[in-house]
Design brief:
- This protein is an alpha/beta fold and about 260 residues long.
- The protein is about 45% helix and about 15% strand.
- α3 runs parallel beside α4 and α6 crosses α7.
- α2 links the parallel β2 and β3.
- The protein contains eight helices and nine strands.
- It folds into two domains: about 200 residues, NAD(P)-binding Rossmann-like Domain (Rossmann fold, 3-Layer(aba) Sandwich), CATH 3.40.50.720; about 30 residues, no CATH class.
- It is globular.
Length: about 260
């Protein structure tokens, strides 16, 4: 157990599995109180139970971040369990990949509602208390899609580019009131989403090897490695880091061609 996040009351979205769950576990280990929100009630309940169940330092509530009323209810519940949040990690997201002219209006809306509007809904819900209490920290889990484009992944990169814009805009807007807003951009991470992506190909193992080959180190990140970066950015160890993005992708996004 550490104390890097002692005094932090962190609200985390999409925390029932994958990167979100790894972030939840890492924050708890570093002394934070954490409240989780996820739309999968059963998975969220199981994840909290696996960590010992609800306590004064851990709670959760199922809800949809695209619905402001759900977010407001979760923030209110968080305030009762762990105290009103002074840190927010917008982790919840969804992959929506298509050809531009094949994309349906419903999938366009789903992509932006979850990946962008959801982050704004949560930020809007926690900011008043942060400003009233003298400061806070918001971390948006973006992606290398926030500044690079992979063909056939439309419109996901658009939403992540916009999330980076939201990060910079809010960071500058509230810098003078001691609220830092940053983003973290993972590349490929060994999560169920990535496994499902590989399994969508006729030869999943060949797809996996192709992904690994893209990376200078010949591997992709673990959720725990992304969580370590999140702990650093939400902590007080980088007090002058604001309105920017930390990339954690093993060098993928700076390599023009794989070796």
């Amino acid at each position: 157990m550490g104390d890097r996040l002692t005094g932090k009351r962190i609200f985390v979205t999409g925390a029932a599995q994958g990167i979100g769950l790894a972030i939840l576990e890492a924050c708890l280990r570093e002394g934070a109180s954490v409240f989780c929100m996820d739309r999968d009630a059963g998975l969220l309940e199981n994840s909290i139970a696996s960590l010992g169940g609800e306590t004064p330092t851990l709670g959760g509530l199922a809800g949809d971040i695209t619905r402001p009323d759900d977010v407001a209810a979760a923030i209110e519940h968080a305030s009762l369990i762990v105290g009103r949040p002074n840190a927010l990690i917008n982790n919840a997201g969804v992959n929506v990949f298509d050809e531009p002219l094949s994309l349906s209006d419903a999938d366009w809306d789903r992509c932006f509602d979850i990946n962008l509007k959801g982050a704004w809904n949560c930020s809007k819900a926690v900011l008043p208390a942060m400003l009233e209490d003298g400061g806070g920290t918001i971390l948006n889990i973006a992606s290398t899609h926030a500044f690079t484009i992979i063909p056939h992944t439309f419109p996901y990169p658009l939403a992540k580019h916009a999330l980076l814009g939201l990060t910079k805009s809010l960071g500058l807007e509230y810098a003078g009131r001691n609220v830092r807003v940053n983003a973290l951009a993972p590349g490929y991470v060994q999560t169920q989403k990535v496994v499902d992506y590989w399994n969508s190909f006729p030869d999943p193992e060949a797809a996996r090897q192709e992904t690994l080959r893209l990376h200078p180190g010949g591997r992709i990140a673990t959720p725990e490695e992304i969580a370590k970066a999140a702990v650093f950015m939400i902590s007080d160890e980088c007090p002058f880091m604001n309105a920017t993005c930390l990339t954690v992708d093993g060098g993928l996004s700076v390599q023009q061609h794989p070796a």
